Amino acid sequence: MSELRSRPLFSISLTLHPTQPVGASPLGTRRIIPISGGSFEGERLRGIVLPHAAADWLLDRPDGSSQQDARLTLQTDDGALIFMSYRGVRLVSPEVSARIARGERVDASEYYQRIAPFFETASERYGWLNRIVSVGVGERTPGGVSYRVFEVL
Questions:
Q1: pLDDT of 1 higher than 80
Q2: pTM for the model
Q3: What residues does each domain of the chain span?
Q4: Who's near 38: CB < 8 A, 6+ residues apart?
Q5: pLDDT by residue (tens digit) across 28-54?
Q6: What is the mean pLDDT of residues 83-96?
Q7: What share of the chain has pLDDT > 70, as a percent?
Q8: pLDDT for res 102
């Protein structure tokens, strides 16, 4: 069996609006985190995250982890629109979570945040994104979150 190989796709930084708490549900505690914008840059594409077209529907699960469910609209520097959606898992201790909530920068090695993004676009130039699998490693930043996203080869 061959080993998993990847190559960098892009780095993306997201800025966040205040959280909208939905509350406890049968599945856990739901929070909606609107994404106010951001930017992404890689060797093959770069651009911005459109404001008012993105959010993460985060579910804090009973096992202490959080299930991410985000949808974003990316606009490349040459005007193409790309729909990006991802599911992910974040596991943060209560102590680290409190530090992040206070706006402290916390090294990503102190918690687990991974995503599996998928893309959809009508752009011929970026149509290859429709046919790849990718993974990302996340880090909370003051006022936002950033990911290093890799194409799985």
A1: no
A2: 0.92
A3: 6-152
A4: 12, 13, 14, 15, 48, 49, 144
A5: 999 999 999 999 999 999 999 999 889
A6: 94
A7: 99
A8: 85
CB contact set of 113 (below 8 Å; sequence gap of 6+)? 88, 89, 90, 91, 92, 137, 138, 139, 140, 145
Neighbours of 30 (CB within 10 A): 17
Paired tokens of 121: 């676009």
CA–CA separation, 123 and 101 (whole Å): 38
Amino acid at 39: S
Which pairs from 137-142 meet CB under 8 Å and 24+ separation?
137/108, 137/113, 138/88, 138/90, 138/108, 138/113, 138/114, 139/108, 139/113, 140/100, 140/106, 140/111, 140/113, 141/13, 141/105, 142/103, 142/104, 142/105
Beta bridge partners of 113: 90
Query: What pLDDT, on the 0 to 100 scale, is given for residue 113?
Result: 96
Written out in words, the top-level CATH class of the domain with range 6-152 is mainly beta
